[in-house]
Amino acid sequence: MTKIIFKDAKITKPEDNQPEQVKKIFPYISPVREGDIVAIKIHPGEYGNTTHVRPVVVRTVVDLVIEAGGIPFVTDTTTLYKGMKLNAADLIKGAAMNGFTHASMNAPIIVADGLRGGDGKEIRINGEALESITVASAIAEADSMIVISHGKGHPASGFGGAVKHLGMGCLDRAGKIKVHEVGKPSIDPEKCIQCGDCVEVCPWGAITPPEIDHSKCCGELSCADACQQEAIIPPPDAPEKMQKRLGEAALGPIKALKGRIGYINWVYDLTPGCDCFNFSGETFVEDIGILAGSDPVAIDAATLDLINERMKPDAKSINHVWGVNPWVHIEAAEKIGCGKRKYEFGN
């Protein structure tokens, strides 16, 4: 059974601040060997989001990697939606605006999938939905990796943690499209008023209301979120299919790095929305703390269990935040061999 290290947010002694907690858990999860080039995967948040993982946590991990003899770089990948992560130049600028710089973290930021998201390495995973997936090159070519995930809600997957960070955040643009392509929507002409909101948010020029060109569409569904008329209709089975692909895709970076990955789930500021939102909503549950382990499935299972234990009575579970069951992608990741859901807490 996988051991998960847990540091409760309710601990308030000065010597148990977050950097000190990270220092205590790092030896249990570190895959770093002398001379390793080590990817430290984060999500710096869209500009305007204020509830992402703090730079001081990342800096602590960087310094520990250096102490272990590694050569760290902090990394993220480009996105399919419009914002300050659509290309590498804007991503680095947006990260700096949120406080993630070489000076603050003691390591350079490298955008793992290149300038426009096209730099990836194909990895065979032999899943039920995906035979292969493309992992961002700088991640695939690293010697080892630490994944620092902000545990929070997500409108498409219900929850964003380690598995989602692997199965989406570590992919290049082509890989992300493979996961999302099952979501290509249609437009209801009776509801569409041709306001152009969907056209504005689509970076691919796929929409000419009331038509969507599926040869250009990536299925990312920012258009549906932007439509005030609810005229953009995803396929009814899109959420489940996307989550299954997400879980399978998580095996790509695991195989690329031969399993040499440590995971930290930073479970504070649990907002319904992802850090890709350019704002931060009200939290739906109290701060949980920091979890760490070497199995992404186990650490997410432990995180979800702790969240559900502390949900407000009327909220029932995290499933009710978006009406999406996050266990779908966790179970898909377990089924393909990313890890096991069973865990035990240890020191």
What's the layout of helices and strands?
Elements: E1 2-8, H1 18-29, E2 37-41, H2 55-67, E3 71-76, H3 88-97, H4 102-105, E4 109-111, E5 120-124, E6 132-136, H5 137-140, E7 144-150, E8 152-154, E9 158-160, H6 162-169, H7 173-180, E10 186-187, H8 197-201, E11 207-208, E12 211-212, H9 222-226, E13 232-233, H10 238-249, H11 251-256, E14 261-267, E15 289-293, H12 296-310, H13 319-322, H14 327-336, E16 343-346
Parallel strand pairs: 1-16, 2-3, 2-7, 3-4, 7-14
Antiparallel strand pairs: 1-15, 5-6, 8-9, 10-13, 11-12, 14-15
Helix pairs in contact: 1-2, 6-10, 7-10, 10-14
Major sheet, described briefly?
8 strands, mixed
H/E topology pattern: EHEHEHHEEEHEEEHHEHEEHEHHEEHHHE
What is the typical, i.e. mean, pLDDT?
96
What is the terminal separation in angstroms?
14 Å
User: Any idea of the CATH class of the largest domain?
Assistant: Alpha Beta
Strand sequence of the main sheet, in spatial order? 4-3-2-7-14-15-1-16
- The level of helicity is 25-40%
The chain-level structural class is alpha/beta
Radius of gyration: 19 Å
The number of E-state strands comes to 16
